[in-house]
Amino acid sequence: MSAKEAPTLPLLTPYKMGNFNLSHRIVMAPMGRLRSYNNVPQPHAILYHSQRTSEGGLLIAESTGISDTAQGYPNIPGIWTKEQVEAWKPIVDAVHAKGGIFFCQIVHVGRVSNPDFQPNRQAPISCTDKPLSPQSHGFDSVTTKFRAPRRLTTDEIPHIVNDFRIAARNAIEAGFDGVEIHGAHGYLIEQFLKDQVNDRIYKYGGSLKNRCRFALEVIEAVSEEIGAERVGIRLSPFADYNECGDSDPEALGIYMAKSLNKFGIAYCHVVEPRMKNPEEKSECSQSVVPMRKAFNGTFIVAGGYDREDGNKAIVENRADLVAYGRWFLANPDLPKRFQLNAPLNKYDRKLFYTTNSIYGYTDYPFLETIA
After folding, report:
1. What are phi and psi of 57, to 5 degrees?
2. Model confidence pLDDT, tens digit, residues 70-124
3. What's the chain's Rg over C-alpha atoms?
4. Catalytic (active site) residue 255
5. At the top level of its lineage, which domain of life is listed (predicted)?
């Protein structure tokens, strides 16, 4: 069979996501890389993102802090200052120059922080005052001890919502095509969502509706600010990252999926239940298909996908788009490799979170350089 007659790979079929015409369904997932020194995006990110851009491909930038209280890791980019906005512009321009579509993931980590990352060495904020247990993160071998967070008052919550709004406005000023609100992985929004962390009562705690209120207020504010067609959200109802689990994740996922419909946002990006542990996938009987059926917009799945099961997810209509993290990190030309069924570069986990501007960042080879 000639190349012209070869069937098109499901992952490489075009897709219209609202106003965006995607040439394929392979999304670069948001991946923290810890290379934005002093929370300012650096020039080496221009090459990194440009390498991974294809005409009509969707990229989601790494978690980007919305304020000076949003940080919990070293060298994570921010988007709350003029300097940060200006530093993002050439990175976004490089993606657009190659025809890519670029969303900025905006985040507040909440209690997944400690005074080292906070202004005036204050306690981090959360929906609760329950601290995280000491834990070791992938970027170093040091065990981090967490101070008890400060429980936000009801009157303070609108100010955090407004920080998300301003961050979204700044992202559009930097040239991004839209933003992805980080409502996953145990960070602030998910701390409100999940009943094993949220111990509030009244307006922002207790019932499922109240626990979801903060997330939906953020979505509403950001949608009003930049237009719902430029807004996505990432959710991980089944995961238990950063000690953030829920007693009924399926009910939480479906409630959120249905609630999103009234805003008309661009997409819902969901982490598969098999990724309860961020490192490896595991066998799991739970499914995001009920969320897929409940949500009216573009549905993106992520979590342990390879070429074969990514194609299968599209064929079986379990997703519109599939996000790849580690494989995109190690294979800047991932769509081309999938098209040719070419071997993939192996990723080096030890270099995921170094501060080096080249090694494990921009030095993964393209197919042409291997041949």
Report:
1. -95, 150
2. 999 999 999 999 999 999 999 999 999 999 999 999 999 999 999 999 999 999 9
3. 19
4. no
5. Eukaryota
Q: Are 253 and 210 a contacting pair, CB within 8 Å?
A: no
**DSSP letter at 38?**
G
111 contacts 70 by C-beta, under 8 angstroms: no
DSSP summary character for residue 330: H
Q: How confident is the model at residue 1 (pLDDT cuts 50, 70, 90)?
A: very low
Strands 143-144 and 135-136: antiparallel
Q: What does pTM read for this prediction? A: 0.95
pLDDT for 226 beyond 60: yes
User: Would you say 239 and 184 are in contact if contact means Cβ atoms under 8 Å apart?
Assistant: yes
- Burial environment of residue 4 by CB neighbours within 10 A (0 to 12, 13 to 18, 19 or more): exposed
- Give the active site residue among 15, 48, 73, 187: 187
Using the 8-state DSSP alphabet, how is residue 74 labeled?
Answer: T
Three-class DSSP category at 32? coil
Nearest Cα residue to 103 out of 276, 330, 267, 316:
267
Written as six digits, the tokens of 274 are 């098999």
- Give alpha helix (H) positions in the chain: 44-51, 82-97, 157-173, 188-193, 208-226, 249-260, 289-294, 307-315, 326-330, 334-340, 367-370
